[in-house]
Design goal:
This protein has 104 residues and is mainly α. Helices cover 73% and strands 0% of the residues. The termini are far apart.
């Protein structure tokens, strides 16, 4: 059995996209996109945020807020490098995970 390779610092954003793209696409009612860029992923998160933002339920509005936080961290990660980039991506991952779990 072959072990999965752990993401490196250089592809941490890619690993994050791989982990959450299918769930976010399902939220917006789309097929998971293939070959998306980092900015395409942020756009997908924003579309999912909009879906939750128009909902009238507290837990969905909370999910929208979590996605909003994630967008901020992902956008910051586009311009940061090294530990600052990893930190922003880790924070974004936490908010993405929480938003998706809140909707289940």
């Amino acid at each position: 059995m072959t072990a999965l390779a752990q993401p490196t610092v250089h592809d941490t954003f890619a690993a994050l996209m791989l982990c959450f793209t299918a769930d976010l696409a399902a939220i917006v009612g789309e097929e998971p996109p293939v070959g998306i860029t980092e900015t395409d992923f942020i756009d997908l998160v924003e579309r999912a945020m909009h879906v939750f933002g128009v909902a009238n339920r507290d837990h969905l509005q909370r999910a929208s807020e979590e996605l909003d936080y994630a967008v901020g961290h992902l956008t910051d990660a586009l311009t940061y490098t090294g530990c600052e980039r990893r930190d922003r991506l880790a924070r974004a991952r936490t908010h993405l995970r929480y938003a998706i779990e809140t909707t289940r």
